[in-house]
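Shipment paperwork, digital attachment
Item: protein structure file
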Amino acid sequence: MTTILKTSPFTLAVCAEMVFRSLPVLDRLKRITELGFQAEIWDWTKHDIKAIAKSSATFSSMTGYITGTLADDDGAEELLRTARQSIPVAKELNCPRLNLHGTGLDGQGLPVVKSEVVTGAMWLKAADTLNRIADLGEEEGVTFVLENLNEAVDHPKTPFAKAADTLALVAAVNRPSLKLNLDLYHAQIGEGNLIELCRTALPHIGEIQVADVPGRKEPGTGEINYPGIARALNEMGYRGTIGMEAWPSGDDELALSRFRDAFSL
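Attachment content:
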């Protein structure tokens, strides 16, 4: 009997903020690396950058700002200012993608600036802000990615939360230094139809993030058919990064094994 070894056509990364949480971050990065994954981090101001830069980890993405918003004048200036501060950190970590949201998020993931309604003026301001972000990315040789979120469970009243919103903004700017961080966990809660969403967004995707629904656990614990999505992405020609941004349902290594299996063909 012939055994067929599966491999992944994608680069697989794991969020170091969500796995091996009983360990210090340097030990988390060590375990993630030993298991063959790249690593992602959130707020870089909460880490000893010089220490983690000396780790063996390959970094896939990090939060690309500290504070700021897309759709008001003061918030946009703050976003640009702190995005500029984030770039030297990304370069020290050799991290290719800097992640953005429609507004800053607090420690519970709630929007710093809540929006009941996103007006036409806010859309125009957000597009202008992202054009300036793209200018900054081009100047510095880095890529910013705009992440979709969900309002129903994790991030209520966040402006530009849906994948349709983030895709519309990224497509309007349409520059290589600004891409979409397509989070399929958030998209399943907010929109569904994930394979067609991937197909529509494909030209603008900088990274895809995953977790299952409900619960934001690893693939294989909920309703999303991630092996089917993996096959569809492969057929579409996607060869980029898939990042697991999920809480392990039990054993951390088992969760990472399930993630790898879901995206191996």
